[in-house]
Amino acid sequence: MTKARIIIGFVLTIVVALGARAVVRTRQQDAAAPAPVRRAAPEGGRARAPDSVRIRVQVLNATRTRGLARRATMLLRDRGFDVVETGTIKGPVDTTIVLDLSGHPEWAQRVSRLFAPARVKTRRDSSRYLDVAVLLGTTWRPPAEPFDP
Fold it and tell me: Is the pTM of the predicted complex or chain greater than 0.85?
C-alpha cells in the first residue's frame, strides 16, 4: 500500500464518522424539539348537522355566478344537511343570508358557519316544509373542488 492510499482511507473514515455524528445529533434535536403548533381549523370546517336530526335546507343563488347553488348543495350534503331544493333568485345580494324558518336558531347558526361571512335572520314560516333557507351572496367563495379525473 502506498502512503497516499493510507491517507485517503484515513480522511474518508473521519468524514464518514463526522457525518454519522451529525445525523445522530440532528435526530436527537428533532426528538427534543416541541411539536409544531397546529392552527385551528376555521369554524366552517367543524360545522356539521347534529346527529339524528334532519335539517331541511333550501339553497338559492342570489348572484350572477352560475353553479354556485350546486356547489353550496354539495358542501351542505357533505356536512350532513338535507338539501331539498335549489334555485336562483334575482340579485345580486352582497352578503349571504341564512333564514331560520322553523324556530331553531342554532340550526341556522350551524349553516351560517359554512358560508362566512353570513347574516342569520329569523322568519318563522310554518306553512313550508323547510327548516333553513340560504340566499348565497357575492362574498361567499366555495371551497376548492378536488381534482377528480
Answer: no
